[in-house]
Amino acid sequence: MMTDQVMANDEIDEENDSAERVFRRGEDSAILRLSESEVQAYTPDDDRRMVINMGPQHPSTHGVLRLSLEMEGESVLRSKPIIGYLHTGMEKTGEQLSYLQGPTNVTRMDYSSPLFSELAFSLATETLLEIEIPERATWIRMLMCELNRISSHLLFQATNGMDMGAVGAMIYGWREREEVLRLFEIITGLRMNHNYIRPGGVAADLPDGWRDDVLRVLDSLPDRLDEFDTLLTGQPIWHERLQGVGVINTAECLALGVTGPLLRSTGYAWDLRKDIPYLQYDQVEFDVLVGTYGDCFDRFAIRLNEIRESIRIVRQILEKMPQGDYKIQDKKVTPPPRARIDESMEALIHHFKIFTEGFKVPAGEVYASVESPRGELGCYIVSDGGPKPYRMHIRGPSFTNLQVLPHMLQNCLVADAVAVISTVDPIMGEVDR
Questions:
Q1: If you ran DSSP here, which 8-state letter would residue 30 be given?
Q2: Using one digit for the tens of pLDDT, what is the confidence trace for 247-257?
Q3: Using a CB cutoff of 8 Å and minimum separation of 24, what contacts does 97-101 make?
Q4: Which pLDDT value is given to residue 40?
Q5: Which domains does the chain carry?
Q6: Which residues of the chain have pLDDT under 70?
């Protein structure tokens, strides 16, 4: 009897190994055998499709981004990004805060590059005030923003590597970023959300020994970036995961308002630091890096090499950094030094009034934009002549860049969706502002 059982099992295995597909219609129905081509004709397309949610709780959506994916097997036919899960309301909050308090609010939007949000808000406010900040303050702002660009792109290298399964890239990228954050802590007192760039200048002058601290970070980075090249750029698996994936063209980017590395990956050399110079970017030399194919690999390579260009800019800033004040000496705009508060009653009253009442800004409207690590970051302010913005709106590049996801995800695999989201590099705090 045992022999009969073994023979029966062997016959079942041979039947299952055949190339024919087996379907059962009900429990008592006969077995229907179909070839692969007949199965495709037998099953309606709608029955093979499904709609799934990727996120908002998903490690590869870089925050609370939700993607509604219409899929057939593992292929993505259509996609729709859905946002709004953070409910921060920072633009409306900014209308309840004084211009002096504004940087503490906007710095929390793009938390991986907060200094750019502070800069855009401060430039807009200073344009309404019609003031010019000291030259040293301008160069300090450039120094801090380029260091922040380095730390942001290093974070991208880390998270992008993790999304692709390269755990080593996550460890190394996080390690190098940590050195820049330590430098920020020395200069601003905080690792993130600095409130360092303020209307009228910066919060404090550079501390003693800052130049050596910056050079130590700059000197360590080139060799580490070469390691990224060795680890990832020439790796065959890395090429397979990124090349030809998430392709976009210049026309699509311009139609949707996409800027930053996404636009430059299509071969369009648009960078506000070059095309509409602000601060003193027309006084330093650097190259605007562009891609060729507009795919995920181009976006990865552009960000990696933009770190090298930022190092080049920072070295020039170290040579050109002037002496002088770090903030405008206008008592109507900037508070007194903290040391003076203990020495002078007038300074104490001045400090109290400017932090409780703020300063009034002439009526008008203005738009100021800067080149953040993700593209054009703009701040639009309407003033009614009071101490608070009447209206404030932020043009967040992460928000705008997400519009291109349905174009890049069409007819790709669900595994490629992870690579595409990663190379868009969205910060959801900026999207749901």
A1: P
A2: 999 999 999 99
A3: 97/388, 98/357, 98/358, 98/359, 98/387, 98/388, 99/125, 99/199, 99/358, 99/359, 99/361, 99/387, 99/388, 99/389, 100/198, 100/199, 100/335, 100/354, 100/355, 100/358, 100/359, 101/358
A4: 53
A5: 86-431 (1.10.645.10)
A6: 1-47
